[in-house]
C-alpha cells in the first residue's frame, strides 16, 4: 500500500530527491551554492531552472530547448503550465517588449490593507524633508 506523502515532514525531501534524479538523468548541473538552481547547456544555449518547494520557474535563450524541457516535465510529472509568470513568491513580474520588471506593489497594498492604511496620504520619500543625517562613529 502506498502512503501519501503530501503534508508529511519527509514529503519535501522525497520530492526533492525525485526531481533531482530527473535533472541528473537529463544532464542538468546543480549550482554549487544554491541546490535548488539547475542549469543545462546544449551547444551555445542554456536553460536555467529554479525550484521553490513544489513550484519551478525556468528560462533559457532558446525557445526550442524550453519547449522540449516543458514537454519532458509534463510527461514525467503531473504538472500544469501557468504560462508567462505574473507572480512568484509575492513578487509581481511584468514582462513586455521593453524588458522584464519586478515589483512588490501587490504586497505593499496588502500590508496597507492589513493595517487599515489603504486610504492614507502617500509620500514620495518617507523621511522628513530637511532632516540632517549624521554618522554615528560608535
Beta fraction: 15-25%
What's the quaternary structure here? single chain
The overall pLDDT average reads 86
**Number of separate domains:** 2
**What sort of overall outline do the alpha carbons produce when their principal axes are compared?**
elongated
Number of strands: 7
Protein structure class: alpha+beta
The neighbouring-strand order within the major sheet is 1-2-3-4
Could you give the order of the helices and strands? Answer: HEEEEHEEEH
Q: Could you characterize what this model shows?
A:
This protein is α+β, with helices and mostly antiparallel strands and 138 residues long. It folds into two domains: 82 residues, no CATH class; 37 residues, no CATH class. 28% of the residues lie in helices and 24% in strands. It has three helices and seven strands, in the order αββββαβββα. A four-stranded antiparallel beta sheet has the order 1-2-3-4, covered by helices on one side. The chain is elongated, with a radius of gyration of 21 Å. The mean pLDDT is 86.
Core attributes:
alpha+beta, 2 domains, 138 residues, 24% strand, 3 helices, single chain, 4-stranded antiparallel beta sheet, 7 strands
SSE diagram, text form:
Layout: H1 11-25, E1 29-30, E2 37-42, E3 45-52, E4 55-60, H2 63-76, E5 87-88, E6 91-95, E7 100-103, H3 105-114
Antiparallel strand pairs: 1-2, 2-3, 3-4, 5-6, 6-7
Amino acid at each position: 500500500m502506498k502512503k501519501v506523502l503530501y503534508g508529511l515532514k519527509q514529503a519535501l525531501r522525497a520530492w526533492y530527491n525525485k526531481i533531482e534524479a530527473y535533472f541528473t538523468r537529463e544532464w542538468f548541473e546543480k549550482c554549487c551554492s544554491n541546490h535548488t538552481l539547475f542549469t543545462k547547456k546544449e551547444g551555445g544555449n542554456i536553460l536555467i531552472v529554479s525550484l521553490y518547494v513544489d513550484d519551478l520557474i525556468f528560462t533559457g535563450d532558446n525557445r526550442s530547448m524550453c519547449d522540449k524541457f516543458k514537454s519532458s516535465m509534463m510527461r514525467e510529472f503531473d504538472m500544469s503550465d501557468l504560462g508567462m509568470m505574473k507572480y512568484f513568491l509575492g513578487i509581481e513580474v511584468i514582462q513586455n517588449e521593453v524588458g522584464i520588471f519586478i515589483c512588490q506593489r501587490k504586497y505593499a497594498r496588502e500590508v496597507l490593507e492589513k493595517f487599515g492604511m489603504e486610504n492614507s496620504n502617500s509620500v514620495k520619500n518617507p523621511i522628513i524633508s530637511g532632516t540632517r543625517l549624521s554618522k554615528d562613529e560608535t
